[in-house]
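Closing statement on the pyridoxal-5'-phosphate sub-project.
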Amino acid sequence: MSDLFDRMRKDQGPIGNHLDRAHGYFTFPILEGELGSRMKFRGKEKIVWSLNNYLGLVNHPEVRKADAEAAAKYGMGNPMGSRMMSGNTKLHRELEHILSAFVKREDTLLLNFGYQGVMSCIDALVSRHDVIVHDAEAHACLMDGVRLHLGYSYSYKHNDIADCEKQLQRAQKMVAKTGGGILVITEGVYGMSGSQGNLKDIVALKDKYEFRLLIDDAHGFGAMGPTGAGTDEAQGVQDKVDLYFSTFVKSMGSIGAFISGPKDIITYLKYNVRSQIFAKSLPLVVVEGMIKRMEMVKTMPELREKLWHNVNRLQNGLRERGFDIGVTTAPVTPVYLKGDLPEATGMVMDIRENYDIFCSVVVYPVIPKGQIIYRLIPTAAHSDEDTDITLRAFEETKKKLDSGAYKAEDIPDMATLK
Ligand SMILES: Cc1ncc(COP(=O)(O)O)c(C=O)c1O
């Protein structure tokens, strides 16, 4: 016998074990001020590249006005209860119709949170006789959905279509025995690398195998495709992707999420997605604010144009300076560098403290030892000046990294930085 709490006190988990040094700096940093490209960190203004505010909507004056007016009208609690019981409104339905038309699907179900929402949709979509085939690098919420599944699930190597087909063959053999069906799950845009799920190749496999496809387009909705309808629009396969999920927390700068697809299947989900049936519906403040955002997304292509201007300026600038930004074809901009933990820490601190640039960094144990990944999110809210200052900072700090300037025995204690 052991006490549960004793184990947690001894071992805080893979990331938590670094909290003594990282808390408040790398993990749980506090950014202050108006959300945008310039915010305060530890009292000093920084250029911020960590917000998935792709279209710059989160702090757009028209959005702020609409949110404030909706809050004054409804308060935060309205409506009470789940959609099924007492929390349904005409505005919820109106937003669902707007979203359906935008992503060219028959119907839509609003979800109060993306993570639980899509996890619970996966739970509702499959029975123990069905098989899930999913990308190995799918987001944690998709993996948790797979974990809820009582039947078989097979993962394929990230974006490896040959492996995807191999796993489909395994799945096909299995469902021949169980009598179930196959659900394939991928993302539209992968949030760490900016790679797009190869939707075109996956849907082409429908000629050979029978399956339904669900995509999580959290990083694509609003940003990708000629109208911003997402990665499947960008790849010209909207009619072949059976279920389209995205969240309002990124391009939309809000909260909540949705899933769109065939009318009868959305009706099934309405009556079977446990995280919605047994939880409060999306507040009207959010719903009305989202209706405003959708109107802006549809009528203001300049938001997307500004985003892509900034994406291209940043990504071309990094490539021209010899940085490895991998295979991104989306706004997500990773910068891959080699270095150990003390070096990575030294470099981030230099960039943050001396060049006043705030971006996220990923190191061991999230990725293998010896690698450093910076992740920058260009948005419509950034200026050319923000980008140019950042490019100069990256150029100078990379020279320092290459010359060994950040080599150190140990990482500094960021938690006690003055
Ligand atoms: C790919 C992906 N799916 C789902 C989610 C979860 O969405 P939400 O924050 O609305 O719960 C996120 C993160 O926000 C994400 O990056």
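Residues 337 and 372 are 5 Å apart (CA to CA). With this model delivered, the sub-project is considered complete and its resources will be redirected to Aim 3.
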